[in-house]
Amino acid sequence: xxxxxxSNGSELPIxxxxxxxxxxxxVENVVExxxxxxxxxxxxxxxxxxxxPVGKVVNRWIxxxxxxxxxxxxxxxLPVWGNRPNDVEKYLKLSLSRLNLDYxxxxxxxxxxxxxxxxxxxxxxxxxxxxxxxxxESDITATWKQMEKQVKNGLTKGIGMSNFNEQQVKKxxxxxxxxxxxxxxxxxxxxxxxxxxxxxxxxEITVTAFAPLGSPGTNQHFTKKxxxxxxxxxxxxxxxIVQELSKKYKKxxxxxxxxxxxxxxxxxxxxxxNPERLRANIDLFDxxxxxxxMQQLDDLDREESGRIFNFLFFKxxxxxxxxxxx
Length: 326
Prior knowledge:
single chain; alpha/beta; 36% helix; 13% strand
């Protein structure tokens, strides 16, 4: 495993396990296989409904002596309906209770925009017309100040953001007493986020790529959950150059795409429930892509038109003043 030294001194395993869209009943088995395969970085979030099974396996490994807590890097996130100053500590403590941990290694603001919550604070409030109830009075800088308090109180070692654009990242960075250490964003061959990565590098913020393989299966997920379908959903794994390089290096298409990112010091959190693919996704350290082949993959970048996750499945979200993709 390769590690990235974060600006707060923590070491981030460059490959982690993503748990979004993993069915709750599958999570325990997936995390067990992942830990046995060498994963030590696990990414979850309050609204993934995976924190409890992740915590169950992690604690079983710690109590049995298979791993020490300090060898693990656990990330979770503030839900979009709790994205306001007075909710930060409440939701982090709820996440820690679900994980059965005293602290997490990284706590992220999951989104820059905010929704009102439903009555039991378990999900966003959705109006009768299907639009999400926007909390337009939310202030990301005020919320950040409460994120900083969680570091001071020892509930998280580091803090960061997810799905923020460059201007929003700079806005946080400029007011921060405790600087963000990670920005987690959609990043893959079709959306390489080169300008955002350059800005983050200047601010000493590490970039983590979610959907590094283009998130196959997501179209079906959103159709089922939000009645929202993407037009012309991309098959990045099936691209001719990816297939060609797969044969050349005798690696899977997924390994080629992941290597392209980690070779640029971008951390990745691929998700899989398939044991063979889980193992393949971390088996990335016995080869390097040539400069020419790296360039061929660089050339796949479609910039903003390559974005898959614009969050328009949250009906009405584009009207929020902090919607990041205007």
